[in-house]
Write a structure and sequence with these properties.
homodimer; 4-stranded parallel sheet; about 425 residues; 14 helices; alpha/beta
């Protein structure tokens, strides 16, 4: 058995799930949620083995925490599956359509991609999330998870397969190539014609490798060097809560603030007050020369700070001459994820919205709102920082393609 | 000057065209149309040089014909540009939007990709088509045309640059890397971060190379091994005109019929009559054993015929037991471009529409209708056979991405 033969099995079985109706898919998902709850002990035992192996091999504490499952976390896995059951099935949605002058009726209909590949790191919740999203959107799935979560994932994938099998859907619809290690990941990346789309999730490094090496089309979920620019016209009473929320509400995620740009005319009023608020939240500040003078305790920003995604309680601060310099800074360092301006001037707001090239561009809003749940998508597949196919928070429909149906009664082209 | 520095120039200049308004873009396009007409003599002289060089180097007659420009063909280039002026500008279209429970107003708006790359073969009309489409959709453009059309393309690109310059848009928005030959093509394929999307047009071989080697996301416009399946329930009076139209109306293009599958119960009635019609159109028939007995003059089909896109007056014919065998044959040999069934049975029609995995799936229609113009898109960028981003005939909006605009008044996430 090679990794490629497992991928071929997923492709062969994919028709089963591609054509399954909404009701059958939802029944299998409900079974999966029940199986997760009923088999919590087995899942926890496997997870304990992974954790012991991780601790013995010096896995970072943060990663150990991401890897750890508890009874409560298993319960949330099951509720995440039930939330996906509640979503509308994207398959079969008519996206557009018309009757042509010659009487041909054309309609563009959502269809599953076929087979989705995913390469990700040691987070067992991703295994269940993507499996449930794939089933709901009618796709087969080939997974390569991090080796640190291998035993946990093996149990979870077995439960997914059992849930499918219980409703007459081939369990081969879900495949793991974990046993082949890096060769498994490589096999997915090379499986053009078998795997229709590949989604990497994890470190910037993992995503970069996949984007560069994959022959299969990739949906890139990227890192966020996220900026807020405080314009001279900003309402400073709104500014501090927005900045604190953007930086501290969940600093480890991609939509949290990394660099603050402040107009020189409001710096001396804003920065000392902001500094107090940041200090009380234990945020380390890397400030440019002007900002340093206004923010006691700040360290001096290095050139490299502007290009760093801290994902931690650290913030770069730069004082700029105005919107032109802010736009230049953002164009140079942005990873095109989320950028926000604080301003009360309509023209400045509209210029920022028009000129910033990013997946999400905001006015007077915390950057933490770049999120599928917050956007009302119900479930989130990730946040795309590429421009092809999907950009920004991605809902379930991102896991579908379309096909055109043409209904005629003998039309020929003149 | 390297190919990469030209690509960087296009990227630097791209803001000029990304932010140009509809009226400015249309004025530049009208100037381009006028310049093509006013400079016909210079274009023809350059084209003559390319043709002489091609003839001396044994360029195939078909390719010489595609390369050749005439006064009439230059007039059609100018009218093609004017047709693009008449299209709606996709940039700025609001694709979706809503107000969230917290008062944030989110809207998803079409924006230009930024920089488009194109690698194509010796067809000077493609140069003007894609330049006009790129300008209209607000994109910068990097071109690598076939070396056979190098002198013609150089003149055409000079005229495009002049038209932009006349309206204060940087001419660097359009770049050709032809002078670097294959290295130019390679530079475009490697320019991840500079070029946002790459569209190859030309032979199956050229497209395959680009798809396999490009680090830039590709929109694949593929070849078509197009099938018609004549079901036992088909109206045979409709069948012959549809088959003849699909095969002969323009055999050199990707939506023309290559393989006919016929239900065994109607083969003896359909095939002799069809054979007469095919013979009178000079179509060479490659038939399986059963079909051969019913089609005088047919040669015996080889296994390789089922996998061949003839792009010529040749047709493969196979008699099948029924729809299951037809679906199996199509699943095996289809390039997922266009597939059509001829049937009067509703259930069979719906099953074919649901189960065939192709960009366009038809009932009782000539396959020649898979076309952006016929679908009402006004202009056609090509026909995508991939599933990501675009599938089937592509209109102008395929050259755009979207971004999300978020308008708030101080919202923070709880």
């Amino acid at each position: 058995m090679t990794a490629n033969s497992l991928i071929e099995k997923a492709k062969l079985a994919s028709g089963d799930i591609n054509r399954a109706g909404t009701s059958l898919k939802n029944q299998a998902l409900e079974r999966l949620a029940a199986l997760l709850e009923a088999n919590a002990a087995e899942i926890l035992a496997a997870n304990e083995q992974d954790l012991e192996h991780g601790a013995a091999n010096g896995l970072a504490i943060g990663l150990q925490d991401r890897l750890r499952l508890t009874t409560e976390r298993i319960a949330s896995l099951a509720s995440a599956v039930r939330e996906i059951i509640a979503l509308a099935d994207p398959v079969g949605e008519i996206v557009s359509g018309r009757t042509l002058h010659n009487g041909l009726k054309i309609s563009q209909v959502r269809v599953p991609f076929g087979v989705i590949g995913m390469i990700y790191e040691a987070r067992p919740n991703v295994t269940i999330d993507i499996a449930a999203l794939a089933i709901k959107s009618g796709n087969a799935l080939v997974l390569r998870g991090g080796s640190a979560a291998e035993k946990t994932n093996a149990v979870l994938i077995r439960l997914v397969r059992r849930a499918l099998d219980d409703f007459g859907i081939s369990p081969d619809v879900i495949q793991s190539v974990d046993e082949f290690g890096r060769d498994g990941a490589k096999a997915i990346m090379m499986a053009r014609g078998l795997v229709d789309v590949l989604i990497p999730r994890g470190s910037a490094n993992l995503i970069k490798t996949v984007v560069e090496e994959s022959k299969v089309p990739v949906i890139e979920t990227g890192d966020g060097i996220v900026h807020i620019y405080v314009d001279e016209s900003a309402d400073l009473d709104k500014a501090i809560p927005i900045i604190i929320n953007s930086k501290t509400q969940r600093p480890s995620v991609c939509n949290s603030l990394e660099t603050l740009l402040v107009h020189k005319d409001v710096a001396s009023e804003l920065l000392p007050k902001l500094n107090e608020a940041l200090l009380s939240e234990d945020v380390v500040v890397h400030a440019d020369e002007t900002a340093s003078g206004l923010m006691s305790g700040a360290t001096m920003a290095q050139e490299s700070d502007w290009a760093t995604e801290y994902l931690a309680l650290e913030l770069s601060v730069r004082v700029v001459d105005g919107i032109d310099q802010a736009l230049d800074h953002i164009a140079r360092y942005s990873t095109k994820h989320t950028e926000s301006i604080l301003t009360e001037d309509l023209g400045t707001a509209e210029r920022f919205l028009a000129e910033v090239d990013a997946a999400v561009v905001m006015v007077n809003s915390s950057t933490r709102f770049t999120d599928g749940g917050e956007f009302g998508f119900g479930a989130e597949v990730g946040i795309s920082t590429q421009k092809l196919h999907a950009r920004g928070p991605m809902g379930l429909s991102v896991l579908t393609s379309t096909k055109w149906l043409v209904r005629g009664n003998g039309q020929v082209r003149g």
